[in-house]
Amino acid sequence: MVTNEQRRRQLAREKFERQQQRREAQRRKARNRNALIAAGLAVLIAAGGTAAATGALGGDDKKDDKASADATPSELPTPTAPSRGPDPCAKPAAGSPAKKTWKSEPEMTVDTSASYTMALKTTCGNIDLKLDAAKAPHTVNSLNFLAGQGYFDHTKCHRLTGEAAGIYVLQCGDPQGTGAGGPGYTLAEENLKSDLLQEPKDEQLKQAKMKIYPAGTIAMAKTQQPHSTGSQFFLVYKDSPLQPDYTPVGTIGAEGRKTLDKIAGAGIQGGAPDGPPNATVVVDKATVAKS
């Protein structure tokens, strides 16, 4: 028998999917409108791509309305003026997020037979990641390229989800800090049959063809459309049931798990199920290294 709690979580996941479809439509509308404005003013703009790479993990309703002109997919049930709890993190380093975008996926330079690590030096502590170049070569190559360009430096982790949402992730990788940003290009999803993903024990989740993204996983955010992975990624701090559509690219080390627990423990602004974390999580510096 399906319990009320199971039903509530299933409805929450279904709501996320519906919201993402609306966000995709809003982005297309915004891009078309902006293109017409630019043409009317005879403004020459270097094409860089504005498609955001967010998954079923975004911003809030108020921000969605405000930022739709900027092609943001943010949409969350947060209060109009969310209160904030204690911030356990340090002040961000001086600097601003990058604004550069690229027209196409970078040339492949990673060695798929080698091991790669990614280090996120954040205001809340270090997050160490092990990347799987063999099983997600294009994704690792993109992360390596973007980190080398300083793309992730000074970026805010803009979204935290928790118990009420039924998934447990911290989402980062957007220089805009809204859930709308991307590098200008997108990637095909990879490694979707990864051994990292686990079968759920819950029959309802099995019937919905969900997989468990286990605690300690780093995966890439995306839209509902295929080939929509960009720069945004999410860090799983507790087992989370999701459709197996998001590229699992690696695992989080022990130090990173502690940092994530610290961030999650501080909660979400306004006590919402999903939204900006109370902790001011800023990536001061991101590096990828061959090990």
From TrEMBL:
<dbReference type="InterPro" id="IPR002130">
    <property type="entry name" value="Cyclophilin-type_PPIase_dom"/>
</dbReference>
<dbReference type="InterPro" id="IPR044666">
    <property type="entry name" value="Cyclophilin_A-like"/>
</dbReference>
<keyword id="KW-0413">Isomerase</keyword>
<feature type="compositionally biased region" description="Basic and acidic residues">
    <location>
        <begin position="59"/>
        <end position="68"/>
    </location>
</feature>
<dbReference type="InterPro" id="IPR029000">
    <property type="entry name" value="Cyclophilin-like_dom_sf"/>
</dbReference>
<feature type="region of interest" description="Disordered">
    <location>
        <begin position="1"/>
        <end position="30"/>
    </location>
</feature>
<feature type="region of interest" description="Disordered">
    <location>
        <begin position="53"/>
        <end position="108"/>
    </location>
</feature>
<dbReference type="Pfam" id="PF00160">
    <property type="entry name" value="Pro_isomerase"/>
</dbReference>
<protein>
    <submittedName>
        <fullName>Peptidylprolyl isomerase</fullName>
    </submittedName>
</protein>
<feature type="domain" description="PPIase cyclophilin-type">
    <location>
        <begin position="125"/>
        <end position="288"/>
    </location>
</feature>
<feature type="compositionally biased region" description="Basic and acidic residues">
    <location>
        <begin position="1"/>
        <end position="24"/>
    </location>
</feature>
<comment type="function">
    <text>PPIases accelerate the folding of proteins. It catalyzes the cis-trans isomerization of proline imidic peptide bonds in oligopeptides.</text>
</comment>
<dbReference type="GO" id="GO:0003755">
    <property type="term" value="F:peptidyl-prolyl cis-trans isomerase activity"/>
</dbReference>
